[in-house]
Structure to design on (145 residues):
């Protein structure tokens, strides 16, 4: 038999199942019950004319269905999370290998031609400085500084 704690823990799912099964039971009726198992059983008995045993059997089945749906959703989320983690690790490993190759290629180029490498780095630095300086100057003119 379903327990009071189980009813309270899965109240929203049980409410949906009860409304679906027994159209004559309204949301207002269920709001008055507020998760109380005995009140819920009494409400269903009054509205449907079913015996207590039949209502309890229905609630046991409804709880099993709600619990099964929750378990399926939890399992699907766990599986998705695991797949995302695996994809992240695979991409991270690929990026790490590519970064290592780029570093090694750069180091070989610098060691073979150190003066040209310094000149290129210096030129790139000067060019970057000019671009930043011009953009800041243009921004200052727009805001009136």
């Amino acid at each position: 038999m379903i327990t009071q704690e189980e009813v309270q823990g899965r109240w929203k799912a049980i409410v949906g199942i009860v409304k679906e099964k027994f159209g004559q039971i309204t949301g207002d009726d269920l709001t008055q019950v507020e998760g109380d198992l005995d009140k819920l059983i009494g409400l269903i008995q009054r509205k449907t004319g079913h015996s207590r045993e039949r209502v309890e059997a229905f609630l046991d089945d409804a709880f099993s269905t709600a619990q099964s749906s929750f378990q399926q959703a939890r399992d699907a989320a766990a599986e998705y999370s695991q797949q995302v983690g695996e994809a992240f690790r695979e991409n991270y490993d690929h990026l790490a290998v590519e970064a290592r190759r780029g570093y090694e290629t750069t180091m070989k180029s610098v060691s073979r031609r150190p003066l040209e490498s310094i000149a290129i780095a210096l030129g790139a630095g000067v060019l970057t400085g000019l671009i930043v300086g011009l953009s800041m100057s243009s921004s200052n003119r727009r805001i009136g500084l």
Notes: The mean pLDDT is 83. The chain has two domains: 4-112, 113-145. The chain is about 90% helix and 0% strand. Helices lie at 4-9, 11-21, 27-33, 37-48, 52-112, 114-143.
